[in-house]
Amino acid sequence: MTIGRRIAVTWLLFGAGAVVVCLVAPLVGSTSINLWRVFDSSIPFPDNTDAQIFFVARLPRVLAGALVGSSLAASGVVLQALLRNPLATPFTLGVSAGAALGAMLAITFNLSSGIAGFSAVPIASFAGSLGAMAIVYGLARARRSGLSTNVLLLAGVTLNSFFSALILFVQFLSDFTQTFRTVRWLMGDLDVSSYAPLIAALPPIGLSFAAFAVLPRRMNLLSISDESAASRGVDVHRTQRLAFLSASLATGAAVSLGGPVGFIGIVVPHLVRLMVGADHRLVLPASAFGGAAFLVACDSISRTALAPLEIPVGVVTAIIGGPFFLWLLIRHR
Amino acid sequence: MAAHTTSLIAVALLSLYAVSVTAQTRPQRIISIIPSVTEMLFAMGAGPRVVGVGNFDRYPPEALTRAKVGGLIDPDIERIISLKPDLVIVYGTQSDLRAQMERAGIPIFPYQHSGLADITQTIRELGTRVGRHRESTALAARIEADIADVRTRVSGRPRPRTLIVFGRDAETLRGIYASGAVGFLHDMLEAAGGANVFDDVKRQSIQTTSELAIARAPDVIIEIGAGTASASGRNLRAWDAIVAVPAVRNKRIYLLAGDGMMNPGPRISESVRRVAEVLHPDAFRK
Question: What is the pLDDT of residues B31-57, one digit of tens each?
């Protein structure tokens, strides 16, 4: 099969899988709803409880899951290629810790009045992720013209620990109920219950995916070595910059939308590689679709397993993702 | 030599006994870390003997003049011991603090939040412990009579299905925390003539999704805020997104601000009354 056909088949199969999961997910939940009533236009919307559960509670939530899942999985692929490290995740380079610090500050210092009708927490966490991204990027460029991936990795890991310490300090200053809310934020929550946060997250995620579209061929060459990529006409520095900035931007937007949901950025890319091989032209789109399907499915479990109580979605992804990843690890030895 | 040692031990034992007897009878230097208990002590007239309070104590204003000794998770043990207390009221989960106090020989009074009936029960026990038996009995009886009055006024009236929200992110329906079927918030609602929409969830609190809020279809939504600032920041119009809920359609969403609402202390009867007044305005018209 030619590569063109393989790309087309991958898009089709993984795309169809994601679409099916996203179509089924809004049908399940803690309450049973009548699908005929949902789409019955003879009942006015304010009186139609089923339609409101479907369109206000479930649909935005499923779409948020799809956006966050695909952003994190795709960012994972890009960062694993950039750092040539299979253990890299979207959270390796400090972006999510920056986002978490922003969210913690907003919750603790009660920026509760909101900014221009938006909740302050996602805005603060997105600002935090941009701050962390700028620091890591500045450090990695400080000593030479291109991006030093070693410095990138070390700066990211250090920044992660540093921000975690600041987060603990902020939590120490906050009172009990706020501490509870900050801890809950760290477990991830996709119940956005309106379309506004989705629309707000679309521009940065769209920009990142536009960058992801041009990356796969260059990443294939880069994953061998910088030199061989350069000899094949790849502008190594430009590609590294693009990869780092787009993956960080997508991660920052995803985390400010749904919280730092773990394991997606590492489990989904590896699972996808088992199915389609290592070619980034296949791995990247398959991971984006797979991440969407995986997170939406996990969120459906979180909504229904203990209803009316809800298991935080980050707990579900960790319970499924952790053991699975360990299995991958020993299987590859 | 042996006689000397024996008499030393006897003196030590005697003084220990004397200390414990005085502590048992009437403590003179009391420390309370929990806001509701601090309020109880002041309300029963033991305020002058309170030497240390928790960092989150706000009421009565007098309490703010006392030394601050930390909070629930980070009590400042050095500070507590240096204040030379003869009674420390500890929260039930503060097992470290409890052990340290026992090692230092400082008497403790363990306390834990639970239902509405436990509040007056605690007031009585605490009053006996600090030598304010008569005052605390009167205080508890007054609170019980006030709550009974509310119960009488609302009895026989339809009980609106109510969602009690005690936490929500600003401007959105995210991060909604509501009262489950256990604890003083639930009891307060029940005494005020309401029915909890989550009376099947046997927990103190439940994180509510927008789906649950729509599906449970509360007739009334009451948001309570610990502080006025955080409460006013919570825009009630965010609820308009789920207009299928009767409370939203009939504009029966209320904000009850003030730190007393979240505090299971002596002001509880006022809180019960405030809830009853929004649930059954007719019952309170003169």
Answer: 998 889 999 999 999 999 999 999 888
Whether residue A99 contacts residue A260, with contact meaning beta carbons closer than 8 Å, is answered with yes
pLDDT at B39: 93
Query: What is the DSSP pairing of strand B176-179 with strand B205-208?
Result: antiparallel
Q: What is the DSSP string of B228-241?
A: HHHHHHS-GGGGGG
* Cβ-defined contact of A49 to B215 (cutoff 8 Å): yes
B282 and A CB contact within 8 Å: no
Domains of chain B: residue spans and CATH? 26-146 (3.40.50.1980), 157-284 (3.40.50.1980)
- Calpha distance B207→B177 (Å, rounded): 5
From the candidates B74, B182, B211, which should be mutated to test the interface with A, based on the most A CB atoms within 10 A? Answer: B211
Inform me whether the C-beta atom of residue A30 falls under 8 Å from chain B C-beta atoms: yes
What is this structure's pTM?
0.86
Interchain proximity A176–B229, CB inside 8 Å:
no
CATH number of A204's domain: 1.10.3470.10
CA–CA distances in Å: residue A226 to residues A34, A138, A147, A170, A229: 57, 21, 11, 41, 5
